[in-house]
Amino acid sequence: MAVGLDLLVQFFPNFASIVLAATGLAIIFGIMGIINLAHGEFIMVGAFSTSLAYNGGIPFLPIDALPGLGRLIGAMLFAALVTALFGLLVERTIISGAIPNWIAERTVGHPVITPLYDRLLDSMVATWGLSLIMVQTFRNVFGNSLSGVPIPFGKLSYGNSSIGLYQVLLAGVAALVLVGLYLLFVRTDYGMRARATIQNESMAQSLGVNTERTYMATFALGSGLAGLTGALYAPLLSIEPGLGAAFLVDAFVAVVVGGSSVVVGTLLSGGLLGIVDTLFSNVYGTFAGRIALLIVAIVLIRFIPEGLSSLVERLRERRLEVD
Amino acid sequence: MSDATEGMDPAVKQTSAELATGVDTDTILQTDGLTKRFGGLTAIDDVDFGVEAGELRCLIGPNGAGKSTLLNLITGALSPSEGAVYFKGHEITGLDPHERIRHGLSIKFQVPSVYEDLTVRENVRLPIQRLASGTERDERMADALAASGLADKADIEASALSHGEQQQLEIGMAASLDPDLLLLDEPVAGLSVDEREEIADRITQLNEERSIAFVVIEHDTDFVADIADHITVLHQGETFREGSIEEIEADPEVQRIYLGGETDA
Amino acid sequence: MATESDDTATRGPLGRLTAALHGPNTMGNSRRFWYLFGVAVLLFVFFPLYMLPSSVTNMSQYLSLALLALSLAVVWGYTGVLSFGQVAFFGVAGYTYGIVAINVTGPLGTMAGLVVAVGIAALFAAVLGYFMFYGGVSDVYVTILTLVVVLVLKTFLDQTAGDEWTIGEAALGGFNGMPGIPDLALGIGEPFLVFDDFTLFYAALLAVLLTYLGLRVLLNSDYGRVMVAVREDEDRTEMLGYDVKRVKLTVFTFGGALAGLSGVLYVTYFNYISPSELSLTAASLPVIWVAVGGRKTLLGPIVATIFIERLGLFLSVNVGDWAFVINGLLLLVIVLLLPEGLVPGFRDLVSWLGDRRSEGETDDTAEPTGEVVE
Prior knowledge:
The complex is a heterotrimer.
Chain A: H1 2-32, H2 39-54, H3 68-95, H4 98-107, H5 120-142, E1 155-158, E2 161-164, H6 165-187, H7 189-199, H8 201-206, H9 211-233, H10 245-258, H11 262-284, H12 286-303, H13 308-322
Antiparallel strand pairs in A: 1-2
Chain B: H1 10-20, E1 27-38, E2 41-47, E3 50-52, E4 56-60, H2 67-75, E5 82-87, E6 90-91, H3 97-102, E7 105-108, H4 120-129, H5 134-147, H6 163-175, E8 181-185, H7 193-209, E9 213-217, H8 221-227, E10 230-235, E11 238-243, H9 245-250, H10 252-260
Parallel strand pairs in B: 4-9, 4-10, 7-8, 8-9
Antiparallel strand pairs in B: 1-2, 1-3, 1-5, 5-6, 10-11
Helix pairs in contact in B: 4-5, 4-6, 6-7
Chain C: H1 4-21, H2 31-45, H3 47-50, H4 53-78, H5 86-103, H6 107-134, H7 139-158, E1 166-167, E2 170-171, E3 178-179, E4 185-186, E5 193-194, H8 197-219, H9 222-232, H10 234-239, H11 244-270, E6 272-273, H12 280-293, H13 299-318, H14 322-337, H15 342-360
Antiparallel strand pairs in C: 1-2, 3-6, 4-5
Helix pairs in contact in C: 4-8, 4-11, 4-12, 4-13, 5-6, 5-11, 6-11, 12-13, 12-14, 13-14
Protein name (chain B): Amino acid/amide ABC transporter ATP-binding protein 1, HAAT family
Pfam families (chain B): ABC_tran (PF00005)
InterPro entries (chain B): AAA+_ATPase, ABC_AA/LPS_Transport, ABC_transporter-like_ATP-bd, P-loop_NTPase
């Protein structure tokens, strides 16, 4: 009984970290056909911005002067915004090549960069280059670590153990993020455009969807989510330039396992992988948890190549057939 | 590749030699209750489709009738939801595409898919190098190039060929596998009248001289009338009619689905 | 147009060899290329005569790494499977060699270590490849999975500091790595030839040279043509009767073995290996070398490895930590502006200049240089 409760409580933070690590990556991959290998570094930007803002390191923006919880929340929102803007910049310079091409057209007379949209392998290589640049630049500029952010809320006791309330609450935030994304994709104009673009890009264009703007918004959104993840985990991590790597396994395995549908896929893979991670980490240690994640991913891809979200689609279709 | 001559066993050659004499008219391809569902959509519904050895069959039907899906089920690019495919008397339903090819099946895709960065000669070489070596290989490559009308363009990159030439090259590549059955998905789409005639000549020549059986998907009714012995009409994933070109042309129901039958997805 | 078999009939064994080395799949089919190649080889052979000993030993390190780059060029550049996992095979082979060579003393142990290490690396690649390719994992997921494998393997090695991770005499050593790995040696009982310093340089040079020439033969063979066909269009190749999954698995396994050989040579240089060889930064290096040099070439990755590693040394002395930033920028700029890599870009420049020069003159080099084809 106590073990069961222990596992249940442990599950929440694991679920949260997988979902939060994966959503930004999944959105950019699903909609733009870009694998952002610098995703971990975008998370790192979020964590650094949070630390700087919280500790009063941002000029003219005295977030550290806000009272109580406002100081932390303010710093986190600021970090998500900064990362989204940074993502926008990356999209315009590297992913779409729009800025370099704009300059090249006025100097050399022709564009020099083909956009990386749907060039999966090239996008991986390019963003990896970006990740190397970011890690080392941050290390050179900020040193090996920044001062941390305190963990809010204290401990939650159950049985003879305890866990940080904040870690458990993160699962709620993760769920909120998924609900928010669902509403965004289903209810808003942007969501309609994004889904139209996934279904059929040229069709969407001919219907007047500005796919380039959709891509810009998508990359900024995905980056903002990565930044939010970094912000949310800033209290739990030591703020150092390599921190993004810790999220990579979770993020990639979740996207691989989840499949094409961002919200449903991430929810399912977060749930399943969270359970696997909790069981194995608790019983055999962290490393066993990682190995188990990898094995589950390989086995699942072997049997469900289109990812978990395809299962749901199949179920829904079967129900339609019965009707 | 050590297993270069797999699927070329003497027994098979024997059969096709028999077929060429017209004595034996065995069924070469047969599907049995073949069904393919994509989620809620049933693209192919319980189709029993048979082709005689040496026959030239056209497969027609409105857009979305399931023609390409049927071809993909036959080559193994898709696996069926239900049913089975038999080729030369053997069930091939569970085989990988390359294994089916080695049994004597061959396909030309709808979109020309030659290797654009390779030269025409390298393109032709790929199917042939698996089957032959030394001087035999050279001869067969030269034959294939000549038959495709591309002998003088052998050393340019395939991307530099015209659309019609790419279609010819791809038919040549598919034919150089020495198939018993060749599937062509819209071989003349987007071609000029002259180019269409060349392709039609090529198909009848391969059919008559090398007794290769054909299944040709085509929209162009003149082209179909030119080449086909026998026509199968597919409609909403089901076999709708089968018969000679005259029978099909005279059938008012076929007229109806072509004129008003665009309702399916 | 003379066909290939006519050529071989007239030229004899030497002709057969040259025919095997040439073809559209590798760069450098002209006589001029081979002159330059010969000069370059001679420069390398006499390298110890005109360079400092430290440069020579550094060069043996770069040459071992060039094998790692070649392994990725074969898998990615020629077969179209982008693997971030080459360092995993490299590292596994390095550790395996260490375990065997530390436990079995004498040259026999090191020779056995070499064989076992390369074998284990190949086996590892084969098992991983089997699950990925026969599991129908699409190309992108293959790339991601190989990356995840590297990350997980590093996590594993990082936590092997305890005594339970001592295999015989060899302790895996966690973060601190495994020191005291013996040099590779030939002989039975008494070592007849030990590969250290200069001898290791020549061993690495020979390994790179033989691998390069061997790969040229492979890539211009029928099999090499199938590899390129798989890269260009998998479905089409399957429909020509080729077993695409098996081709990918075979190449991936071979790439694992080659990366393993690289790993063995590399650990005998340092006599030491640690999990940092499997860090994300380390995993990115082969991709950088191959992308920068030109992934559809063999020479490009070799040249780029030596150049970038040498540059890295220079930068770390002169600009310190900014070396990685420059590496990353290099990768980014190349992928965006010259996706084919530097060496093909250089070749196009040379042939363009050549065309301009010969435009005015009579064309006395009627024989095409053959350097224009990819």
